[in-house]
Design goal:
Layout (H helix, E strand, L loop, with lengths): L8 H18 L4 H13 L5 H21 L4 H26 L16
Helix pairs in contact: 1-2, 1-3, 3-4
Length: 115
């Protein structure tokens, strides 16, 4: 098995999905490994379209959960919002690098390129 430090964001996300499935289907306790993978996903950069899709999928999942279930615990909600922001930030940085456009290009009337 590949060491956690060598996995891409996409590989981490696929591993997380497999762990969740193992828990749902087989009742296997995956909490320790799951926490480790989720922390690694926050640390890993976005370096490919597959990484971007993985990070956007998790950001959307967390956002949808917050929107549908409301907020009982403000600290948990703030942590979830920070996670979504981190995932989105990584994807934006990746897309800036591959397109040569800066995020500000879409937020103002000026076109700004990334050097």
């Amino acid at each position: 098995m590949m060491p956690l430090e060598q996995k891409t964001s996409a590989e981490l996300a696929l591993s997380i999905a497999a762990m969740v499935k193992a828990h749902r289907v087989g009742g296997i306790d995956v909490s320790a490994g799951l926490d480790e993978h989720l922390c690694a996903l926050l640390e890993r950069p976005c370096q490919s379209p597959a990484d971007a899709l993985a990070l956007l999928s998790y950001a959307q999942f967390i956002h949808r959960n917050l929107a549908q279930n409301g907020v009982d615990n403000p600290d948990a909600a703030a942590g979830a919002a920070a996670t979504v922001s981190a995932y989105l930030g990584k994807v934006v940085e990746y897309l800036e690098a591959v397109t040569g456009l800066a995020r500000e290009s879409f937020l103002s009337s000026e076109s700004i390129t990334v050097n």
